[in-house]
Amino acid sequence: LSLASAFLLTACGSDADDVAPDAPDTPRTPIYLSAALASPNAVTRGTADLQTTEFVNNYSYGVGVYIYRKDKTAAANPDSYGYTNLKYAVTGATGDLTLATGTSQPYYSAQNTSVDVYAYAPFQGTSGSGTSFAAQAVQTDQSTDVGYLQSDYVSGKANFPYNADATVKHKVTLNHRLSRIKVILKAGNGVTDADLQGAVISLLNVKNKFTFNPLTTTAADAATMASDATAATINTGTTLAAGTSADGTLCTYAIIPPQTIASGTEFIQIVLSSANKTATYKMKLAADATFAAGNEYTYTITVDATAISFTTSIAAWGSTTAQNGTAVLQ
Prior knowledge:
Elements: E1 7-10, E2 33-37, E3 63-69, E4 83-91, E5 96-99, E6 115-121, E7 133-137, H1 145-151, E8 154-160, E9 170-176, E10 179-187, H2 193-196, E11 200-207, E12 209-212, H3 219-222, E13 223-225, E14 231-238, E15 250-256, E16 259-261, E17 266-273, E18 278-284, E19 289-291, E20 296-303, E21 307-315, E22 322-329
Parallel strand pairs: 1-5, 2-9, 10-20
Antiparallel strand pairs: 1-2, 3-4, 3-6, 4-5, 6-8, 7-12, 8-9, 10-15, 11-14, 11-17, 12-13, 16-19, 17-18, 18-22, 20-21, 21-22
């Protein structure tokens, strides 16, 4: 996953969070930031009609930032220096970020100590309980840019020593904290590529509610399943004509929270509605499937006239495994 472009976070304002007072004539040093997504292939959706970068100029969901002294947090910060959940907005055609309206410019402390910076997206309006955001959910319709971007939770942490040079833009690398599913269709016996164009692909029996903690550096702890999470159906989108997607395949993508789905559970549904073929297929998991934070799971499905066979792999966002199985015509 190649690094996305650096996105600058700049603005001016006053510091209302550092309660350690400065002398009236003591200059303050602002903290300027940039952000990039971890590699590899962190940001592509795969189909030609969807975005190719995470923080495009119409990304309207915001980036949140927390700043504390090194190795301190809001709960362990005796002098109360810190910034909590500052909101940054995406502006410009190249993905530049600026402080959102009404957000004060962050500064180093008066003692010029190094700082820990936590960043995450999409922005959440309140801090919730402690450092976690409860009642989060991936969108059940991810067939468009809007649903997909709202479902892609990312976060990261970096430490920066004091630097009085305002031209230095400190970079925080953001990592994907949920799991991504990629479904690729291939024509088998009695089926053509044309039959697979316009196929609607859905994920079945996926729990989509979770709690998100942007201040953890452990991937497994960033998103935890909500106690009231129930099975939902995720619309991953509609396939395009063969050869028109970014990787030359009939494929769709969706993001789900980390979870384990039991063997025998119906997991992928494919609805064909081409001029020559109308059919619905459902694929059951051949074994327990665990979807871990930061991993992409690819299901390559060969569609025959009466059944579908599939293989799976875990790649791009994580390690590699494989699984084989068959699903039947409904």
